[in-house]
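Go through this one:
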Amino acid sequence: MLDLVPLFTLDVRLAPPKTVHNGPHGERRVIDILGGTFTGERLSGEVLPGGADFQLVRPDGVAEIDVRATLRTDHDDLVYLTGRGLRHGPADVLRRMAAGEAVDPHSYYFRECLLFEAAGPRTEWLNRVVTVAKGARTQSTVKVDVFEVR
């Protein structure tokens, strides 16, 4: 049986989505990361500006998440984060989210798998863990609860 152990919560500020194109696979968007924080019992710090979510919104309405970000821990270690996931829900809920309305996160599905690259002595253990995450999206932020799979 797998155990999920809370790792940290990401609170990230986002730029408005930029549509790159609307092609045969769906709408390709880039959502820049403006900054933020992450807090947890074992790991806390800031989310540095400069990362992004390179999303594909498929014709069926599912958003394929492909996020890259850099974290700086409270001990000044840099950690590279990559994540893949899916976000989808009822069309009316997704429309309300896109319009900037507050939507109950339980009314849609937003899950990710995050992996890390870290070299600092206090963070190198992240190279050996798999995480799963549950997210909530507002118009300009994302909050993601990250759990280590044990």
Remarks:
- The mean pLDDT is 96.
